[in-house]
Design a protein that fits this description.
By secondary structure, this protein is of the alpha+beta class. The chain has 3 domains: 2-112, 2-Layer Sandwich (Alpha-Beta Plaits), CATH 3.30.70.1050; 151-245, Chitinase A, domain 3 (Roll), CATH 3.10.50.40; 262-427, Orthogonal Bundle (Trigger factor, domain 2), CATH 1.10.3120. It is 49% helix and 20% strand. It has helices at residues 21-38, 51-58, 60-82, 135-148, 251-256, 263-297, 304-324, 329-336, 340-368, 374-385, 391-397, 400-427, and strands at residues 2-8, 12-19, 87-97, 104-112, 151-154, 164-173, 176-189, 211-217, 231-245. The longest helix has 35 residues, at 263-297. It starts with a strand and ends with a helix.
Amino acid sequence: MKTTIKNLPKSQKEIEVEISVEEMKNYVEQATKKLSQEIKIDGFRPGKVPLEIVKQKIGELGIYQEAGDLAIKKTYLQAIEENKLEVIGQPKIEIIKIAPDNPLEYKIVLTILPEVKLCDYTKIKGKLEKKEVEDKKVDGELEKIQKTRAKFITIQEPAQKGDRVEIDFESRLGGVKIDGGESKNHPLVIGESLFVPGFEDNLIGLKENEEKKFSVIFPKEYYKKELAGKNIDFKVKMKLVQKIELPELNGEFAKSLGKFKDLENLKSSIREGMEAEAKNKARDELREKIIDQIIAGSEMEIPDLLIESELDLMLRELEHNIIQSGIEFEKYLENLKTSRESLRQGWRKDAERRVKLNLIMREINKKEEIKIEAEALKEKVDQILKAYSGKEEAEKNIDVQRLREHLEEAMVKDEIFKMLEKIATNNS
């Protein structure tokens, strides 16, 4: 067998393969025997048809074509291995020349993992920005917790700012009902400004069962372009007015939330959580800067196949998350007035970046040879499996081997990032 390899754009290769007449004789013999097992001829039992009759029935060219198929199946993998190619996706095979008493010639067009010319990542720079948690942010979080323990007291008085209300409303543009622009028993707190500016102000002074008509000009930057900057007419009926009674922020309140001895202890816990979140955010920002530097300084030609595969993965991840939240994915797309293809188009740059990140991580790991301790990996796997009531349920719902591989890959990536963070901060 003789092979000639040619480079094509976007990490593709073309291999031309020639199998000599001498080599083909063996495949012709194999093909004839194979066909004698499969062919049905009156008077002969299956597999007992004489080779000469097979040749007469199928013809020399037919046998040679079968021999060609056998030769390609055997030699195309050999051609890939000989040239040490890391193939992704399915190769395309095309026969160039096939004829009795002639060499068989065919070509393979395949996509390979792209070569990555890494920059010198020992020279990257970056700082872990320290993000302070201000007292007012802690107080704001405390207020959110306080609101979750609020009591609602129904009143028959006019609604005021700060009251919780429930309303029926419908909206029209130029006298025509707006699609999706109505709701029944819709809850809101007057003053939280969750509706367009001016809407909640018109609810002040309304008592239970009172109705009101008013108009509001929508913001010019409103997300629904057909309504942006337009004068929208509303008809509202007040269904319920409630005063909000907040619990006092004191030691008793803190104790009611769990193992907190006093209010200061609760605030310290909130601060610790916010500081951990801020630290994680700062770490993620540093990692983004590190990857941006390495991508900018490295060279690689990304095949479309890898980008499409990454887009498939991103779409599956989104669909899984939406379904897990109890929403039909098709309904979700319908509400967003988009499609799977539109999402893919919008994500293309992100997908390409994700592919580059994975290739860079793979290449760095080739150099650094980072290994994960078996015990550390087992601990991570066990943490996931603990979410299930028993081993049987876990094995039914999870491919444990695949989970182990996924976690190991994530842990290796995290170790690489830790190394890069140390390099970047030392250089800054």
